[in-house]
């Protein structure tokens, strides 16, 4: 009789434990152990518990391939979250760890593999190959694609977060914290409505302090003190919420007829616009992507969205400052070019409209599209195409933990037909979809890689561009780590780039206009 020591770890979040029956069977190359009920004196499988049991087999099992867990209801259904199972073979051989990190819901069986990362070429056992195939078939039926809107990345087939599998839902602590924060914000908003209704009207921007009473951090106070100043405007273009729009201007766009005389008063002594263009000290913000976007109507009032061009100058003393702003893409008598020497309120209002367009681009393109929606493609493709034993799955899984639920909540609460964007944002409704479609049409894999993005935008030498410096520190660390794991880039030989996470893996195709997953036959 062979005796194996089995250690089972229950999840640490609330409601992870169970009082249902839990059985285990060890599956080896030479056979299976007895189906064993895991039952010690006292309570088993409590939250955070690490319980140990003995499992017997009439004969040696050989190298262990799988651990089969079974849950059966006892009186009432009680879901169980298993973190991992460890198995110590007879004779003191090396203890094997079988990661799980899954919910067992209902009367179910779940087979898990030993934790060593393996690609398809590493699997030689028929048991392992069959398990790999069965796992992916189950995943593909569970995680399905759907088109939320044409022309943007596809997403998980779930109308709300309640439709998601439990394995990709928020844990209870995360959900409670999220919902508490939401309810607290709504309660605070109600109090502010009362303050506005029974207080005086907003006659001054200082009234913001009365409404946003929580903005008392040193940074917030500093921003409220300096937001009107040109140097701070330039600083926000480099290090604010959306620092990816600025690029070096080597030649003025034809639809932005700025002359040297217009901006001479903003130049440093003994220089002029043409010289600074050649020196690489002139930069541009171009919001052409917002031109002609359908606008929202809020409380019966049609909204307006500018499509500005903003010229900036790297002044040797003042830093990066705006020197000319045009609020539409087509120049003309009705589209003046605003300058710092204009009346102060005119210049301030022009800068505010640039920041308004910046908000739309940041929220819908940099945040929603490039962060949430594009990453969801990676998340769903990873779940559908890579088994849990695959090295890339192990690499990505911790970083994709809450992606699907937060995106489902965003689609239902933020960008839906009656969501927050429709109620308060100029691009709410049709505008946000059109804007996302425009950006996704020209989105390339290269633009998502910081080292190439900075080169393509010509900002590698832009002074005090802290976003670039901090980004490259993180990127280099990730790059070094992934290259130690032999993750490589492969060319297709057809003029199209194919990014492969590793020599035998799921492949991401970048066609220049879209990102498409395809399966490598050896992954």
Automatic annotation (TrEMBL):
Single GO molecular function: oxidoreductase activity, acting on single donors with incorporation of molecular oxygen, incorporation of two atoms of oxygen
GO cellular component labels: cytoplasm
Pathway: Lipid metabolism
Details of cofactor binding: Binds 1 Fe cation per subunit.
Residues that hold Ca(2+) 1 according to the record: 17, 78
Cofactor requirement: Fe cation
Sites marked Essential for stabilizing binding to COTL1: 103
Domain Lipoxygenase: start-end pairs: 118-483
Sequence positions that bind Ca(2+) 2: 39-40
UniProt subcellular location: Cytoplasm
Family note: Belongs to the lipoxygenase family.
The protein's name: Arachidonate 12-lipoxygenase, 12S-type
Native organism taxonomy: Eukaryota, Metazoa, Chordata, Craniata, Vertebrata
